[in-house]
Amino acid sequence: MVNLQPLTATELPNGLLANFDPGPVRRSGDLLAPSPFLLLGDHAGRAVPASLNGLGLDASARGRHIAVDIGVEELGLALGERLGAPFLRQAYSRLVIDCNRNPARADAIPHISDGTLIPGNAALAGSARQARVTAIFEPYHQAITAALDAREAAGRETILIALHSFTPVMGGQARACQIGVLHGGGRGAFALALLARLREQTRFRVADNEPYALDDTDYTVPAHAYARDLRYVELEIRQDLIGPSSARGVERLSDLLAEALAFCARD
Q1: 186 partner at 20 to 30 Å CA-CA among 71, 193, 227, 230?
Q2: Model pLDDT for residues 139-152, shown as the tens digit of each residue
């Protein structure tokens, strides 16, 4: 029988990540590509450091929406190809640490998600939380900062596109929205233009700031787009449209989004 009990911080001989664990940041495409877009996947990964023994969850639970934004890695890769844009994404599960939350927030490392207890996140010592921030959260956001610095130095405009997906049912409630266009502060006009374009060009149910609003619970867009006065949008795609059960979903959505994004970038 597999032991799913996570080790404590004092039992980890070499810190959080071992040599055989993946690095926290995955990149596709040329960061200095002429395309104005930089695609991000805060929750695209599902890896868990071997030292955490699966956070006390079985493989089935670690493949659910609580652990990963299903379909986002595949969508980001396809969209990056169509737009000629780089795609940076996090390799580790949002249950290890949520890279779209300020790490000081309690929900950055949730002990329960959509009714599922996360044993490996219960009663974490401050040092154990900091280990995740240092090994996983900080390198990811440093990579985004470095990409933006390099593009600025090369005279490249950057429009930040944060890709997310959401479960069709949350807390027992079905969600009618299929594509959510999220915006808040900063240069939100691009997101509003994209919202209008998608509503014109598709029969998908495209919603304004649903199923979530972009607010102070979000970290990535405010930290990188607002701070640099970049055009941006955060997109939420319902997972049944791009998940494994939808054979052509990724191709269909990436075609739609590539056209709409390119149109709004020119407008």
Answers
A1: 71
A2: 999 999 999 999 99
